């Protein structure tokens, strides 16, 4: 059996700080998939076929931001009202077309996520337009519908239009409440504005307000981080995500480091190393859990049951996600797909399809068998179905949630993984019970490295395909 430190971590008196050197990547994954090409006729057919999914989601991407924050590489296009309006008109038109297709109508949707970029940068009228387009989809009762973004520019008008048009969850990036840390990171507002606004919005009788914080930002000491954690409680929000800063290439921080410069003031020179970040994670987990907040995943906590985090937890289970918009990712009929980010190409595909449709509608008068209209096939990447998708979803959801239920795996698979699980136990990352593997606090901090390590272990030590089945697929 091949076991390496990148799979197991290393033995250390302090696994939280030293089990691995650095967080390997934002997410772990493996894929036995390969790119596939889908002909236009097949694309048409896909939208006529009912879905086989039992749970599914809709993901809508809004690729605009007012400013490029120093730490982030999600910035795609600058905010410009005309440019956004043109995009929103096209996008909502496509959503309406999709909503009438057999693929969409065949099964209800559990959750919708409007992500970005900064979706809250769209105008109040566009929020309404988007909410109306989403309401044409068959949603389960009380489906979670999230609008992502930031508090800056999200005025009362937008908020009222959002809550009146079906949005019931709001995920705002705060990153840090500390005014100086924020300025160095290229954020607009100060701590008082954020606290007041979050307090106001959290008074809503049913909407869930959640925020993202990052630990490890330039200038963010442990002391500042502890004030950030207390500010979360004081803000009245219903949930929080704590993300470790990942040194993404192409960010402004990355460019400045290459040139040996500091962004912001001399205070921003401080940057927590991996060990200091481990302590920041631990103080975050202890802070919320000591105040009876419930942990829903390794990085997400909720104040009470109003916050459900349905999209995030289902997305990790590999469910069907219909993607809309330039840069949106998802999966259709078991095929992973990623729409290209390039806005020009995205518009071009729609313009060409409109012209073709005009010609076709003239023909349809002469030959009325023209098929039901389907959304435009935009440039992007499409993958063949991942043969181990259901198994990978069990690993990802289990390790991310802090507990892997072993009875979801076949007994052959559990036996095959015991050397890895035992090494994790020896290294202080997990505790092996009869029917489950529970991650320690250190394991939860390093869970993405553990997921990556597990996939590497399976690649180096393949198990016969017949034994890879989950106990669910054995039962069915
Ligand atoms: C797609 S961004 C949208 C956030 C929103 N536009 C805003 O400005 O707050 C979603 C989240 O990714 C996280 N994120 C972005 N860059 C990151 C990085 N380098 N490391 C860790 N988390 C990051 C941030 O917490 C952010 O709120
Ligand atoms: S944090 Fe938000 S606003 Fe800033 S660049 Fe990233 S997506 Fe855009």
From TrEMBL:
Q: Which InterPro entries match?
A: Coproporphyrinogen-III_oxidase (IPR034505), Elp3/MiaA/NifB-like_rSAM (IPR006638), HutW (IPR026332), rSAM (IPR007197), rSAM_sf (IPR058240)
Keyword line: Methyltransferase, Transferase
- Cross-referenced SMART domains: Elp3
Record bears the keyword Methyltransferase:
yes
- Supply the PROSITE patterns for this chain: RADICAL_SAM (PS51918)
Under the heading Pfam families, the entry gives: Radical_SAM
Superkingdom as given in the UniProt entry: Bacteria
Q: Name one GO cellular component term.
A: cytoplasm
Query: Where does the record place the Radical SAM core domain?
Result: 50-285
What GO biological process terms are annotated to this protein in UniProt?
A: methylation; porphyrin-containing compound biosynthetic process
**In the record, what terms sit under GO molecular function?**
4 iron, 4 sulfur cluster binding; methyltransferase activity
The entry's protein name is: Heme anaerobic degradation radical SAM methyltransferase ChuW/HutW
Q: What is the lineage of its organism?
A: Bacteria, Pseudomonadati, Pseudomonadota, Gammaproteobacteria, Alteromonadales
Q: Which gene encodes it?
A: hutW
